[in-house]
Structure formats: structure tokens, C-alpha cells
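Appendix B, example 12.
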Amino acid sequence: MFSNATPTAFRLTALFSFLFVLTGCSSMKIEDFKDQTPTLVLEEYFLGDTTAWGIFEDRFGNLKRSFKVEITGTVEDGVLTLDEHFEYNDGEKDRRVWRIAPKGNGYYEGKADDVVGIASGQIVGNALNWEYNLDLPVGDAVWRVHFNDWMFLLPDGVLVNKAKVTKWGLHLGTVTLFFNKPNT
């Protein structure tokens, strides 16, 4: 079957087949959530104080880190600012400030200091699909990674966020967060 194939061509075919299986395909589309409730309105949900708890699992499903995030959201001139304060289980602390602007028809764009370029996403029904590149400190290095976030608003003010983290198309891990509004 491979008698005419060179060893290099065979290795490349095997590598691309392996990468396809490793990265997989997602058939989930934002339009799938058009009839789902409660309806997510980003500027309303994140206005005021919000608390989130999260975990990071590596590509093998091993829990690597857990964290808590205290978020203060304000809206000025239509722009949502999220001031996020992270506290990790190993004692590390971090801060990220997002500035997110609605672009119409459920589309949003956002910026933060460690986000490369512009984050973009769309809300339909109870779901937001949000993608961006992030400069992530890893030891003494900084890795540029890609986040593909899916957020789902559930009853009682619970918002679930699941993000696939990739580099060069390879799955590095998954971040899962649960947001809750006080007094909801």
C-alpha cells in the first residue's frame, strides 16, 4: 500500500493523522443555543460583584491548579470593564482587567494587557463563544496560547465557562470556571 511512499511522506501522513485525532473536531455552534434560556446579557450579568471558582486540567485530565476569582464589573459609555483578581491554590495572585465592547447582533470585542490583539465572540441565547490569544507565563518563559471559551448561563445566576487551551493547534488543557452572583 505504501510501497511508492517515501519514509518522510509516510511520517508526515502519520503525524497529520495523529494531530487530527489529538485535536479533534467540535460540532458545537453558537447558533445551537438560540432558543436556550435564561438569555445571557454580558453587561447585565457582570455588573457589580461576581465570584468564580476554577480549575485547570492538563490534556490528560490531570488537575494542575485551582483558583478563585473576585470580579468587579462596571459599564461606562457602553464598555464593560471587568477587574479580575485571581488567587491560586499555590498562593500566587494575579490580576487581569478586561474592557469589552458590544459590536451589535450579539458580537463582542475585548482587550486586556496579556491578550494579544483583540478577543472576539458572540452571544446567542444563553451561550457565549469567545476566542483570543494570551501571553501566559509558564515558569521563566511566556507561551502564546489560544483560548476557545464557551460560557453558558444557567438558572439561579450560575455561569459555567469551559475553555480549551491550545498552542499551535495542539490541546494543552482545559480551564473550567463556575461564576456566581451574590444574592442571586
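The longest strand covers residues 63-76. The chain has one domain: 29-180.
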